Amino acid sequence: MKQILNNPYICAVPNSNHESGGGNITSNENGMHAEEKLKRIREWLSAMFVERREVIDGMLTALLSRQHVLLIGMPGTAKSLMARAVCACISNAAYFERLLTKFSIPEEIFGAVKISALKEDRFEREIAGHLPTAHIAFIDEIFNANSSILNSLLSLINERIFYNNGSAIQCPLITLIGASNNVVDDEGLAALFDRFILRYVVNYIQEDSNFVQMLTRQDTIEHARNPPVQLTFEELIYLQAEAAKVTIEEHNLEMLVRIRNRLRDAGIVVSDRRYFQSLSVLKAYAYLNGHSALGDEDYLMLQYVLWTEPTQINKVRNLIIGLTNPYMQEAEEIYEAMLSACRELEHGEEVHKAPLAAETVTKLNQGMKKLSVIEEKLRAERRDTTRVKGYIADTQKKLKEILSLYLGITA
User: Fold this and answer.
1) Which end of the chain is more exposed for a tag (fewer CB within 10 A), N or C?
2) Which pairing describes strands 175-180 and 167-170: parallel, antiparallel, or unpaired?
């Protein structure tokens, strides 16, 4: 995979020795179905990039829904590496990558002007090997796009059209992943910002144990170049078609109306276009979660769609959870309280660690009991229990670590 990651221009994502699927859309010679490969890719990426599960889900959802995703975060938060790792999971697709600077010129993105065409009074670019011919693209520091690049970039991202010598060319672009160190504050770039239906703020690793896991992982960059399994381009198209079949019923639309009204009441106004585009995102995320119809958990993807300022993200999330599943709102509050207790223990004075650890163990056990009650309520109402099960499993892991590290007790 070195050719992909080191070449700033375009290349076909090569077939490697991985399980890439051959010519069969639904399964390869080893009998692995496209859905199974997607699941393995999701788990592999989430395990490799700690505290990035939701960002990984966003990029995979973007691929399934033919939408674009923006990653915003300080340098060193693995934005570029995550994007490249996701793109490496798709074989035999045309991939384009570029880092923009304030001095970048259109030729870097759209191809050089043909000298032979100029001699014939035609302004035509050699687009082969550039963004107009890419299926998947990653543009780092995308908000460095200047006016000479911006207009063509906007139409290519939104309409998948590039004008070459006045002729409209339909571009095969599926998903563009953009990255930036900062939230855009230039009104001239607002239209570009709006083209990204999914938007993530990527922070530094928060939990000490995850930070240590990141430090002790060997050859992360090389590992990211070599996914254990790849989807072929044909399989990706198949999965997109399957995701589009996810059912959105009348009550789902009614919930979207309620969400929109509550957001308006909170002073968060989102365009009609963004709500419309969110339908394909919801379907894709539901499919990624193994659902044939939109469920309560799937609405949570909207927290990355319906904000314009990063300060709105938690407000949007809490509003959505409160409307779609009050049980999960309670579960999140319990889980956050347990995380807070763990952080207090990690940052507490060494001399007080043992008694504080015992107190934290009590809090975690009490919290897990409450989460188990919520899980039973969710199951009784036939609601999704995946997230609350994840909270319980994560708490059990933290509990074992605390018992071993601070109290010398091993299970």
Assistant:
1) C
2) unpaired
In sequence order, the β-bridge partners of residue 199 are: 70
User: What is the largest distance, in Å, between two alpha-carbon atoms of the chain?
Assistant: 83
Query: Angle CA(135)–CA(77)–CA(12) in degrees, nearest 5?
Result: 20
Report whether 364 contacts 344 (CB < 8 A): no
In what helix (H) or strand (E) does residue 142 lie, and over which residues does it extend?
A: none
Sort strands 231-232 and 90-91 into parallel, antiparallel or unpaired.
Answer: parallel
CB 257 within 8 A of CB 222: no
Side-chain half-sphere of 331: how many Cα atoms within 13 Å?
25
Displacement of CA 224 from its chain's centroid (Å) = 16
Q: Which helix (H) or strand (E) holds 257?
A: helix 250-265
Predicted TM-score of the model (pTM): 0.83
Question: How would you classify the pairing of strands 69-73 and 175-180?
Answer: parallel
CA 251 to CA 324: how far, in whole Å? 11
Counting Cα atoms < 13 Å in the Cβ hemisphere of 90 gives 27
Q: Is residue 11 within 8 Å of 205, Cβ to Cβ? A: no
- Beta-bridge partners for 170: 161
How many beta carbons lie within 10 A of that of residue 359, not counting itself? 14
Alpha-carbon distance of 298 to 317, in angstroms, equals 12
- What is the C-alpha separation between 344 and 341, in angstroms, rounded? 5
Angle at 69 between CA 386 and CA 277, to 5 degrees: 80
The DSSP symbol for 302 reads G
Q: pLDDT means per 10 residues in the chain (411 residues)?
A: 34 41 46 89 94 96 98 94 93 93 93 75 82 96 92 93 90 96 85 95 89 82 85 96 96 97 95 95 97 93 95 93 89 93 86 87 96 93 88 94 87 63
Strands (E), 150-266: 161-164, 167-170, 175-180, 198-202, 231-232
Torsion of CA 100, 102, 104, 109, to 10 degrees: 40
**Phi and psi at residue 176, to the nearest 5°:** -110, 125
User: What tokens appear for 349 in the block?
Assistant: 């004075």
CB of 27 closer than 8 Å to CB of 33: yes
Rg (the chain; Cα; Å)? 23
